């Protein structure tokens, strides 16, 4: 499912730092969740096997059915967590994506005034990915609070260190691939199938055709992920070519 990081100095450093972040939320997530998440990091650091029997700890996962959130779902379930994939039902989502999410046991949440906010930004030629992500996470966090779930996970690859797992009000946010110092290639490897790399959802692609300046912001995002080693040079090149061809 996942493999130890070996002698990769940067990943080992990040994992050690993420252990410190885990200690800060120990009382908030409870001993069962704490012990299992610590065991996952120690598996990445030392290859130390651990008990993966179900522990009954629920995690609400912001689920898009993409590579990062799907890998997060598979690993957390493999590790014994009770994961609820929560998908924000957006207008640009195609039927196969929704059907795939349903097969994974997803629940769907709505985001009021989503298209109004997106359309306004598209008219202005402003970036849309950041605000879209924020609205999705707010909806998933709201679902978690309403259903008494303490941990909300995401497929974020970048937020390492003290923001890989942190307290937000009365919940704990877990940016899971970053918490395990995973990169994009590792996430895709977890899927166990071929995965076509590409940048952006149908809404972003339509927006970029109307406002080509959005491609510049997208390339900056790819380069940020490359600098953070969330993706490698080959992946970055594929994504940038995809952006420029829109």
* DSSP strand content: 5-15%
The CATH homologous superfamily is termed: HUPs
- CATH topology title: Rossmann fold
Total count of helical runs of at least 4 residues:
12
Known CATH architecture: 3-Layer(aba) Sandwich
The quaternary state of the protein chains shown equals single chain
Structural class: alpha/beta
Total separate domains: 1
Approximate helicity band: 40-55%
Mean pLDDT across every amino acid position: 95
CATH class: Alpha Beta
Strand order of the largest sheet: 3-2-1-4-6-5
Distance between the termini: 34 Å
> How would you sum up the global shape?
globular
Which radius of gyration do the C-alpha atoms yield?
18 Å
Specify the biggest β-sheet.
Answer: 6 strands, mixed
The number of E-state strands comes to 6
Spell out the helices and strands N to C. Answer: HHHEHEHEHHEEEHHHHH
Uncertain segments are none
What are the defining features of this structure?
single chain, 246 residues, alpha/beta, Rossmann fold, 12 helices, 54% helix
Topology, pairings included?
Elements: H1 9-24, H2 26-29, H3 31-46, E1 58-62, H4 67-78, E2 82-88, H5 95-103, E3 107-109, H6 114-124, H7 129-146, E4 151-154, E5 165-168, E6 171-175, H8 176-179, H9 184-191, H10 202-210, H11 213-227, H12 233-244
Parallel strand pairs: 1-2, 1-4, 2-3, 4-6
Antiparallel strand pairs: 5-6
